[in-house]
Hints:
By secondary structure, the chain is an all-beta fold. The protein is built from no helices and 11 strands. It has strands spanning about 1-5, 10, 15-25, 30-40, 45-50, 55-60, 65-70, 75-80, 90-100, 100-105, 110-115. The strands form 2 sheets. Strands 2, 4, 5, 6, 9, 10 and 11 form a 7-stranded mixed beta sheet that branches. A 4-stranded antiparallel beta sheet has the order 1-3-8-7, with no helix packed on it. A hairpin with a 6-residue loop joins strand 4 and strand 5.
Amino acid sequence: VQLVESGGGLVQPGGSLKLSCAASGFTFSSYVMSWYRQAPGKERELVAAMASNGGSTNYADSVNGRFTISRDNPKNTVYLQMNSLKLEDTAVYYCRADFSDAHYWGQGTQVTVSS
């Protein structure tokens, strides 16, 4: 099983980034896919989640209206479009796959918002 995030980097406040998470080794289309983030000195928190069929989504209040989660099941990939980025969005972003009692994590990608 592998979850490989990409797309992180350094961006100015107000800018945009799109993260990708490529999955392999499991039946991607059966899993709820989520993005989490962890800032220095803080607990890991849920950012956004999407049902296996893409039919429902859930967002943290802090990103609602700015971030959009999407998935491409044939490509085994989940995305996180991040717009209007703020300093407080700086964190390592992780993707996670969940199905029943099984869950998998990616290794994370750093997003730094700085002027």
